[in-house]
Amino acid sequence: MIELRNVSKTVVSGTEPLTIVQPLDLSVAAGEYLAVVGPSGSGKSTLLGLIAGLDLPTTGEILIDGEAITSLNEDALAQLRGRKIGFIFQFFHLVPSLTAFENVLVPLEIAGAANARDRVATLLRDVGLAGRAHHYPAQLSGGEQQRVASARALANDPPILLADEPTGNLDSANGQHIVALLRSVNATRRTTIVLVTHDAELAATADVMLRLRDGRAERVPLVSAEVAR
Predict the structure, then answer these.
(1) Is 163 helix (H, G, I), strand (E, B) or coil?
(2) How many domains does the chain have?
(3) Which stretch of 28-32, 71-75, 137-141 has the lowest confidence by average pLDDT?
(4) 69, CA 20 to 30 Å: which among 85, 86, 161, 215?
(5) Would you say residue 3 lies in a domain?
């Protein structure tokens, strides 16, 4: 489903090159739930952005469902993301002038989905926000905004869900709701999940952990809260 071949990312910091992600080979099978953990600055979010096609690697090739996204132009990348990838951002990225319902509706309208409004109603009910559908982001708590963002990411029923610190700005109760949602999506829909997190409890719900340090990766089959810290 996701394959990285000798992928690295180097940027210029001042006048010196800085390698954020060292050359990496990685395969994530369909239906797998992978947690990416590591200290700040270890390359976690950069790696997620590369998988999403939001950034280009310095070296290597990235394949999504057998298609090399590193050779696609921006229009083709956008179409692929619309079909195959949902993205949950740490800071929600909701459109402030749209209601919760409208924020979730946007990707469905872009895709020309049938019964889009029924789909939105179901998604908001699934994340416990049926009664908040017509509220604007400023009228919602942080936890409610993250649940709207999660519903939006799932709107087109993508086979791949990428999540960047989805519980990073939430209290314990709302964090637990997101944890349960991700586990349910993976278990019932067999959605492939790649999750970046500092949350040991959230990392422990995954099937496999990828630990990053100084841009280098170690795949750990058995996740424990202690290891994930």
Answers:
(1) strand
(2) 1
(3) 71-75
(4) 215
(5) no
